[in-house]
DNA sequence: CAGAATCCTTAACGATACTG
DNA sequence: CAGTATCGTTAAGGATTCTG
């Protein structure tokens, strides 16, 4: 089940690393509010670079989580939207984010304890 | 809420990248079966290097998700175990893994469609 | 047994400049 | 507007060697 040559495991692992990358979750959550154009996404997520937004959207599109609709006008218009599959991913992501928000306090406290113990050990 | 200078957001983002790293989820799931010694973990996760296992466990310990118990014998014995906080994280992780397993098929199909369309575009 | 330290390669990412 | 292409930096991770 955790054999890395197993294709199912590889897919799960790839998905987890997507979730863990810097932008995927932000993009999915933004698209959760509805369809967005490329530069609308950039404005909603100011810290993302053009390059990273492009790559993130390409990956999401390739995995079937986001649809890309091109309107060949001048200037061109491209709309991104969550697919049904993409929408279904929101729930487990939300579970994780909620857990994190509920437990920020405990985590920070644990980190403070750990770092204090480290300092003490180094000082000694 | 998605301001990267907000400490809560930073914690959430750090947690997500932990989930997304190569080993954290595997280690948490292995420890979910019960307490393990260092080399027991290595045997259960053969692909992890000693260095990465050490780093992963340190991070988990610092975040308060895993406890580390040293028995100063010769040879030394170190046991790792999920804390209550760590156990509570299993549920949202499971939600994500379950989603992934349920949708591997759809994802692979989407990737195949995407790649086929790419090839066609390149060939043209 | 459980690690710390070091070296090295690769991949991620940001910044910038250019294009249909 | 919505990208692509290229470059340079940083960080992740593996392999190896050494130690209490």
TrEMBL record, chains A, B:
<keyword id="KW-0805">Transcription regulation</keyword>
<dbReference type="Pfam" id="PF01638">
    <property type="entry name" value="HxlR"/>
</dbReference>
<dbReference type="InterPro" id="IPR036390">
    <property type="entry name" value="WH_DNA-bd_sf"/>
</dbReference>
<dbReference type="InterPro" id="IPR002577">
    <property type="entry name" value="HTH_HxlR"/>
</dbReference>
<dbReference type="GO" id="GO:0003677">
    <property type="term" value="F:DNA binding"/>
</dbReference>
<dbReference type="InterPro" id="IPR036388">
    <property type="entry name" value="WH-like_DNA-bd_sf"/>
</dbReference>
<keyword id="KW-0238">DNA-binding</keyword>
<feature type="domain" description="HTH hxlR-type">
    <location>
        <begin position="9"/>
        <end position="108"/>
    </location>
</feature>
<protein>
    <submittedName>
        <fullName>Helix-turn-helix transcriptional regulator</fullName>
    </submittedName>
</protein>
<keyword id="KW-0804">Transcription</keyword>
């Amino acid at each position: 089940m955790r054999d890395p040559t197993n294709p199912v495991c590889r897919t799960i692992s790839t998905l987890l690393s997507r979730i863990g990358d810097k932008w995927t979750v932000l993009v999915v959550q933004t698209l959760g509010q509805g369809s967005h154009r490329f530069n609308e996404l950039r404005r909603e997520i100011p810290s993302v670079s053009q390059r990273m937004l492009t790559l993130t959207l390409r990956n999401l599109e390739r995995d079937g989580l986001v649809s890309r609709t091109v309107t060949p006008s001048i200037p061109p218009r491209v709309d991104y939207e969550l697919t049904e599959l993409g929408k279904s991913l929101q729930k487990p992501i939300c579970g994780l984010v909620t857990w994190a928000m509920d437990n920020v306090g405990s985590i920070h406290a644990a980190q403070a304890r750990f770092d204090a113990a480290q300092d003490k050990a180094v000082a000694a």
